[in-house]
Design a protein that fits this description.
Layout (H helix, E strand, L loop, with lengths): L1 H6 L6 E10 L7 E5 L6 H8 L3 E9 L3 E6 L4 E6 L1 H9 L5 H27 L6 H4 L1
Antiparallel strand pairs: 1-2, 1-3, 3-4, 4-5
Length: 133
């Protein structure tokens, strides 16, 4: 993720969020947390030039969901953006159960898409099927 921020280039479909955490890799090194910050600003670039590395990065996927991705590939602060929430609202249904089913299906599909993209970008390991038996 540090390469993404240093090079200013993200994989297709991703755009910058407005927060990050940068750390000096040295033990007990400095930590910089940015919120509501343009991640392509000179200020952030100076921290990267001084050797700090990205440990958390705010991102958006296709303008549909926002999240913070950690260096451990844990997704934090996951939220659907207005586009998805509007789609959920458009599915006016006759029953509360049908509406709940529609919301669950849409959110599940969107979340699945994020997991597939993470796999594509980082090549996540798969559990060995022999170990499951």
């Amino acid at each position: 993720m540090t390469d993404w921020l240093v090079g200013g280039k993200l994989p297709p479909g991703l755009s910058w969020g407005d927060e990050c955490e940068l750390r000096d890799p040295a033990e007990a090194g400095a930590v910089v947390r940015c919120r509501r910050q343009d991640l392509e600003s000179d200020e952030v670039r100076e921290h990267l030039k001084s050797g700090k590395q990205v440990f958390q990065l705010g991102l958006e996927l296709d303008g549909r969901m926002a999240f913070v991705l950690g260096e451990d590939l844990i997704v934090r602060k996951f939220r659907f953006l207005d586009v998805v929430l509007d789609e959920i609202g458009e599915d006016a249904s006759e029953s509360a159960r049908a509406e709940l089913d529609a919301r669950f299906a849409l959110m599940t599909l969107e979340s699945k898409r994020l997991l597939e993209k993470l796999d594509e970008w980082f090549g996540l390991p798969r559990p060995d099927e022999r170990e499951q038996g």
